[in-house]
């Protein structure tokens, strides 16, 4: 019988200079240890949302998610036996806040990266800090979102993509995207001029008051033959945006991913497909891509 897996997320919260940052360590009285902030995911919660929520709850500071640092796996005791635990970590820039002690965390210290590595209790936290030390941190997020589920395959044959709307599952995926975009601090929304793509970003736009900008060149017809021109436009927009989202159909999202990678030092992954309602989270410095993460929609 396979053991259940407990999902959790956290990160390395940093402030100050990107080249010589201070990082946050928390003390948990229950374990009497010094560790990186982290916590368990709620049912159906995307791990990016978990990471932001737990960081804020344990430190009192608001984070901006940066590049993925890795996932640590180990076994823990649980009711009736043991379970596997998987904790995913991201680099997180501190945006401000104030620490307040709680029952779970009674102390938080800002320390140098060198001091943090010597003070953390677990070897796995040291490994995460080592990954953080090798990761570019002064980046901004760029999301390439594939629209959610639309009509059934039988009905899809009778309608073009220009008229398809999200179905109930797709609307649920769009709603689940809202806390992810909130956690990433998204400020700009661009969509293919297609109902399904506009629908995908509409709940977040309604929640934040942002406007979804429609772009004809992000449709399949508009993108074909203009791949590099569109990618360069997205790169320029990303460079002046705090956090940009682009939504389109599968061929455009994967084509855009490849075209953006050509102008960056970090090459794109070979496998570029993403599930409906999922997205690529890219991290860039002034439009040059430094890291790629593929994410499925929240369960």
Characterization of this structure:
By secondary structure, this protein is of the alpha/beta class. Helices cover 32% and strands 34% of the residues. It is built from nine helices and 13 strands. The strands form two sheets. Strands 1, 2, 3, 4, 5, 6 and 7 form a seven-stranded mixed beta sheet that branches. It has a six-stranded mixed beta sheet with strand order 10-9-11-8-12-13, with helices on both faces. Helix 6 (195-208) links the parallel strand 9 (188-192) and strand 10 (212-215). Helix 2 (113-119) packs antiparallel against helix 3. The protein starts with a strand and ends with a strand.
**Succession of helices and strands:** EEEEHEEEHHEHHEHEHHEHEE
What share of the residues does DSSP label as strand, in percent?
Answer: 25-35%
Largest sheet: 7 strands, mixed
Instruction: Assign the structural class, choosing from mainly alpha, mainly beta, alpha/beta, alpha+beta, or little secondary structure.
Output: alpha/beta
Shape: globular
CATH superfamily of the largest domain: Phosphoglycerate mutase-like
Q: How much is the radius of gyration in Å?
A: 20 Å
Please render the helix and strand layout as text.
Blueprint: E1 5-16, E2 21-28, E3 33-35, E4 38-40, H1 47-59, E5 61-78, E6 81-97, E7 107-112, H2 113-119, H3 123-133, E8 140-146, H4 153-156, H5 168-183, E9 188-192, H6 195-208, E10 212-215, H7 220-223, H8 227-239, E11 244-248, H9 250-262, E12 279-285, E13 288-295
Parallel strand pairs: 1-6, 8-11, 9-10, 9-11
Antiparallel strand pairs: 1-2, 1-4, 2-3, 2-7, 5-6, 8-12, 12-13
Helix pairs in contact: 2-3, 5-6, 8-9
């Amino acid at each position: 019988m396979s053991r259940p897996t407990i999902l959790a997320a956290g990160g390395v919260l940093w402030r100050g200079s990107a080249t010589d940052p201070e990082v946050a360590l928390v003390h948990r009285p229950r374990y009497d240890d010094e560790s990186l902030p982290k916590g368990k995911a709620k049912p159906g919660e995307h791990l990016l949302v978990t990471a932001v929520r737990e960081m804020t709850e344990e430190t009192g500071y608001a984070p901006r998610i940066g590049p993925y640092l890795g996932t640590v796996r180990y076994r823990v005791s649980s009711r009736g036996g043991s379970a596997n635990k998987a904790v995913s970590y991201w680099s997180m820039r501190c945006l401000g806040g104030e620490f307040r002690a709680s029952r779970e965390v009674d102390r938080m210290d800002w320390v140098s990266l060198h001091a943090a590595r010597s003070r953390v209790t677990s070897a796995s936290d040291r490994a995460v800090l080592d990954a953080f030390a090798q990761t570019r941190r002064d980046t901004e997020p760029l999301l390439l979102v594939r629209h959610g589920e639309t009509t059934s395959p039988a009905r899809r044959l009778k309608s073009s993509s220009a008229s398809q709307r999200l179905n109930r599952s797709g609307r649920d995926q769009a709603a689940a995207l809202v806390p992810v975009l909130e956690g990433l601090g998204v400020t700009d929304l661009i969509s293919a001029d297609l109902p399904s793509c506009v629908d995908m970003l509409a709940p977040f736009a309604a929640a934040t008051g942002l406007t979804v900008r429609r772009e004809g060149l992000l449709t399949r017809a508009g993108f074909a033959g203009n791949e590099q021109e569109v990618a360069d436009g997205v790169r320029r927009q990303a460079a002046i945006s705090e956090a940009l989202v682009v939504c389109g159909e599968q061929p455009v999202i994967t084509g855009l991913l490849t075209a953006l990678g050509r102008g960056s030092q970090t090459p794109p992954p070979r496998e570029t497909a993403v599930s409906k309602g999922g997205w690529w989270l890219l991290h860039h410095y002034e439009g040059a891509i430094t890291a790629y993460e593929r994410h499925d929609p929240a369960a």
